[in-house]
Amino acid sequence: MYLNPLVITTLLYACFSVAAASYSTGALPLFQQERRQLQQCPLQQASAGDTPECASLQTQDFELCFGVRGNGPRLFAHFPVLARAVEDFGIPSGYLGSSSATITGFLFEGLLENPLVRDCGGGQCCTDMEQRARISYVLKTFQDIAQDSFLNGIFILPETILQRAKDKNILLRLVSPIGTNRQAALDDLIEILIEPFGVLKSTLVNPELIKLLNDTSPNPIRHAIDTLRATAEGFRVGNDPLVLLREYILNFRGVAWALDFVASFWAGLEPTNLDEMQTLFQECGSVENIGLEYSEISMQPTSNGETCGEFYMRMYGDYLSERRAFEALLGEDTGFPSRLDLMVGDQSSLTTLISTAVANGDAATSIREGIAAYKNLTFDIDLDVNWADGILFGYFGPSQALDTISSQLPNLFSDAKSQRFFPMGPTTWREALVTSPAEPTLSNAVPAGPELLSLGGWSDTTPTQVLKGLGCERVVLINRPGGIGDFTIDIAALLGASDQQIEALYSVQLEENSVDVGLQQADATFCTDWDSPPIDFELLAEAGYDAPLLSHDGCVLSLGLNASAQEIAGCTPIDAKVSKGNKLSSSSSAVGSVSACW
Question: In the 8-state DSSP scheme, what is residue 213?
Answer without folding.
Answer: I
